Amino acid sequence: MSLLDLDERLVALAAAVEITSSPITDFKKPPEVDVGIVEGSVSNTVNIEVLKELREKCKILVAMGDCACFGGIPAMRNLVDKEAALRRGYVETESKVMPLHEVVKVDVHLPGCPPSADAIYYTLSELVAGRIPVLAGENLRYD
Length: 143
Description:
The chain has helices at 8-14, 45-57, 72-77, 82-92, 117-128; strands at 33-39, 41-42, 58-64, 98-99, 108-110. It is an alpha/beta fold. The protein has a single domain, classed as 3-Layer(aba) Sandwich (Rossmann fold). The strands form two sheets. It has a three-stranded parallel beta sheet with strand order 1-3-5. The protein is globular.
């Protein structure tokens, strides 16, 4: 939702990029891209396989602060019983939520749940300019 706080800044950045997919599209076969931006964890073998394939197909992988423990953006797309989903994911199965960097190499970590709009804008604008962002101070948030 922090992306919505970017307002006009996001519109200006969007003109400089081609968006191939979004949190709403839920792709199973990642396209080849320069920058892949994903939430910071995986929780099942399908997620792990899609993540590995995305890593192979993107030059820079950005892990945004993970909101998966309470649903975040995926929960807005998938209308499910969240209590049952959490029970199944954390109690009834052996699969566990794992941070992305335990599965694949992550180039840029953008902490926060969600990261602040300013941190997202800074990260995206640096990537559009061809630079790897260096987050420090006011751009870091770990809540």
